[in-house]
Amino acid sequence: MKKDIFIPLIIIAIFVILIVTGGLYLHSAKQKTTNNKIQVVAAENFWGNIISQIGGDKITVTSIITNPNTDPHLYESDANNALAVSKANLVIENGLGYDDFMDKLLSASPNSSRQVVSAATILGISGNDANPHLWYDTADIPKITAVFESELIKLDPADQKTFESNTQTFNQSLQPILDTINIVKTKYPNAPVAYTERVPGYLLLAAGLDVKTPVGFATAIEDGNDPSPADVLAMDNLMTNHQIKVLLYNAQVTSPTTEHVKELAVENNIPIVGVTETMPANEKSFQSWQLDQVQALLKALGN
Is the dihedral angle over the CA atoms 83, 80, 47, 285 positive or is it negative? Predict the structure, then answer.
């Protein structure tokens, strides 16, 4: 081969290599933002807290609903939320109509490379009457963390071992919650309890407790409506006739009706356990939050 032909071929080869490697670099860069961290947006702060424990310092998490005084069912998104979603590599929503505002945010900024996961879809739960408070089902949380892990690995394959290790650590940290639930189930089988709203429904089911709240009462409160007079009377009777051992009170979504129920419980010396839909600011993690609530339930049942 002549020298004057050989040199241009070398130049062309180098150029092709640069294009290929440059393309790979750009593809990798698309997986992360300029600060080299995966951008995650979680509709609720408990999902945000969980994935932050799995992703560690490899990700940046923005949680939209963080205020325990906010009713998630009535939340209205804003421009900051829209901006965060538009820049996200991964978006986490609860599903089951609990955070419908996320669908609007996602539609407003279409992005084919953005990954979106739904807790309800992961667990295969659907239907208009399904309880959307999925994070109270501690035993099924590892199914969700497994998907979180796999999504992060897709976006950042180089840190696969970190994500796998963090997920294993997180799942193991749920054991004290599960152990306490089993204590409740063993010591107080089928104990009668009530809630103002079915927030802790999955927890009470796992603990083998007997929920006495009229279905119509809990549904109306969850939907922001007034329960029927018959359901209100039935709920009142649970307190005045001492038909329950504990009242689980949703401290996040209150109304004159639920306040009345709480007052009746106090008057009749029925222990009250407060539960919330959003992780409170004073809780350091999802695990501590859930464990505190289960331990409070165990203590109340013993009174």
Answer: positive
Please, which residues bridge with residue 38 across strands? 59
Q: Buried b vs exposed e over 94-111: b needs ≥16 C-beta within 10 Å?
A: bbbebbebbeebbeeeee
- The domains spanning 32-172 and 175-301 adopt the same CATH topology: yes
Is residue 270 within a helix (H) or strand (E), and if so which, with residue range?
A: none
Q: Tokens 């009706």 correspond to what residue? A: 257
Q: How far apart are the C-alpha atoms of 283 and 286, rounded to whole Å?
A: 8
Write out pLDDT tens, residues 220-269: 999 999 999 999 999 999 999 999 999 999 988 889 999 999 999 999 99
| pTM (2 d.p.) | 0.88
Q: Are 238 and 194 contacting, i.e. CB atoms less than 8 angstroms apart?
A: yes
Token pair 């919330």 is found at: 276
> Distance between CA 46 and CA 161 in Å, rounded?
24
Tokens linked to 10: 């070398």
Please report, in angstroms and rounded to a whole number, the separation of the first and last CA atoms in the chain: 94
Q: Give dist(CA 81, CA 102) in Å, integer.
A: 9
Q: Taken in order 206, 209, 215, 217, is the CA torsion positive or negative?
A: negative
Give the span between the Cα atoms of 82 and 68, in whole angstroms. 21
Could you give the CA distance from residue 252 to residue 72 in angstroms, rounded to a whole number? 9
Find, among 177, 198, 197, 217, the residue nearest to 297 by Cα. Answer: 177
**pLDDT tens per residue, range 120-149:** 999 999 998 999 999 999 999 999 999 999
What is 32-172's CATH number, 3.40.50.300, 3.80.30.20, 3.40.50.1980, 3.60.9.10? 3.40.50.1980
Domain boundaries, the chain: 32-172, 175-301
Amino acid at 191: A
Superfamily of domain 175-301: Nitrogenase molybdenum iron protein domain (3.40.50.1980)
